[in-house]
Please model this.
Amino acid sequence: MSKLLKEVLKHEVYPAMGCTEPVAVAFAAATAAGLLKGRTTAVIVRTDPGTYKNGLAVAIPNTKGKKGNLLAAAIGAVARKPELGAELFKGLPAALLGEASALVKAGRAVITVDYSRRGIYISAEVRAGSDKAVCVLEGGHKRVSELRHNKKVLIKISGAGRKTRLPYKEALRKASFRDLFKEVESVSPEDLAYIKKGVEMNLSAAREGLKLKKVGFYMEDLIKKGYLRRDTLSGVKMQSAAATDARMAGAPIPVMSSGESGNQGVVAVLVPWLVGKAFRVPEERILRSIALSHLVNSYIKVFTGELSPICGCAVAAGVGASVAIVWQRSGANPRKATLAVNTVISDIGGMLCDGAKSGCALKVASSCESAIRAAWMASNGEGITEAEGFIGATAEATIRNMARISNCGMDKVDRIILDIMSAKAPKRP
Model:
């Protein structure tokens, strides 16, 4: 277990510019296109329902507000810079954007959803005349499971989705909260510095978001006009919502992700940081608590899946942030951590995910409030117990119960949401 945190930080906590799913689609297209020599003439993309949903209505950085996975795929296919990873839209030249938009307008870039897929699945086929390459991502936003150039297979990992998990995910699945607490005890100075970098990045995004007249801005407006108090709770909600506003509006600024999600990174990082600072918790302890927040977020997503019908900012990052605050105040206390987990999930466990868009800032604000309230109750020995609803006797049991509801009970939810979204979505960016 000693390397579990390092693996989570390596694979799931990284700077991301723009919504995670369009970035992943662009990365797949860029990886395939990088094998071609001629000018891109066509892009054909197929994704799982969650990826399709999350990228349908979210703005792409440096595109003047244009939206969607389809344009993202075209950008990746003409830019051909997979080495930029999650910052693929950084410094996007106008000429390349024009070329990508022309592909879409001409109908030479197409995207479909594969309802048979569960978990992350992105297949990008890029053509340059008769030259063709295919890149498939499966089981992770950056995990290449297949790469083909014409008839030559360069990479082929069979069953790269749920059947063959990365070793650290198997370790997470088998872990208990006590194991996660132990990880926090041995965080290296290098990892703490990296976590602090994420704090600074997400605070910077919040400052940018407050310049936009969106959720965070109007929360601050209420505070300025005296309708809300300027306190810890309103400050956390306002800054977290503002950082999300910036991301969803396509602002060309990175945030530090968590669980491979930028919005979840906002919650997992900023909530324990701002609360810890308000209560004058020593900085190193706050940073260690954020490490725990990342771990809990990733732990929950092993069970719910990377892209669930339930909002991950609520049931994964919100829970992680709440457990982190409890750890700041009470240390490695499984009973109090369980109360925090139970209370957040009992409160907002039914929050639906209807894709990435500006409304995510509202869900982030709600998740922040629930996380702080649950943490304060749990720190004082109060919270929801197994006597109520679908809550379990332990944190681990509650998370498994919620995952069962999400994965089995809500099996048709994504399809219905996607039908509604697709029917009203514009056909061209």
User: Anything to note?
Assistant: The first helix runs from residue 4 to 12. The chain has a mean pLDDT of 93. The longest strand covers residues 121-128. The beta strands are 15-17, 42-47, 109-113, 121-128, 131-138, 144-149, 152-156, 254-256.
